[in-house]
Structure prediction request, 290 residues.
Amino acid sequence: MHRTNLHQLKNNHFKLLFTHHQWYNIHHDAFFEALQLELYDHKNDLDFIFEHPLSKEALIMDVLVIKKKPGVQISKNIGRIFETHNIFEYKSESDYLSKNDYNKVIAYALLYSSFTPADVSDITVSFAVTSHPRELLKYLTTDRGFTIQTADPGIYYVQGDTFPIQILEGKKLSQDENLFLQNLRSNLTAADISKAVEAYRKLKSFEKKNAYMDRLVKANPRIAKEAMNMSEAAINIILEGADEYGWLDDRYLAKAKTIAKNLLLIGRPIDEVAQATDLPYDVVAGLLEE
Prediction:
């Protein structure tokens, strides 16, 4: 897959840069979409840039950057600290945020300031994790002498470093205010998924890749099946866009099979799955034996 030219996207509200390996990285794709959903009310004020190029020599920063329009105030709890340039680092629930990860992202932010260029006072850094980052917080307070302030449930401000910094702990985020980020985990209930589906459906025009719903189903297959029986909207969301990426193209065959398996897992008929994914009937039937 070729790398997208940022300048070709300068007039879009959401600017995306992907490398081949990140295209298939469901965890980060889902987080990327979850952030856009969380900040949907400010979609015209923010540009989302995935894997920002630091220089013409293709020095790539493997984090997400959200650029805010000057003079705009973000009321959403996860965006209150936002300045013009806002750098995000995400760790899935199977990973943890170490002090080395923290220092690496701060280094990225300093490089970003140099190459963009942007004043350090106009940059913020956010870390998103699933579980409580106990060791990191201990390092920041004990070894670095910083102060940690709890701004909201699951939102911690790190005070004393070069940039305004927040740490988002997914498990403790408010489900009412941060439903999409809070549900990026594998221990959801059927009610959790149904609530997420209904909230997602309200923003359906915003959905492009289904990465978020795909992540929920893969992380919670048994519970997802129960939830799907409660809401046909979820089935429609997963089926939607099957033709968008051209499943007959060899590059997307694996993705088509993954979606087909998910649909079979939640009890959809073979012929319906075959029609939705453009896979031959016998190929879909064979997935039941894998």
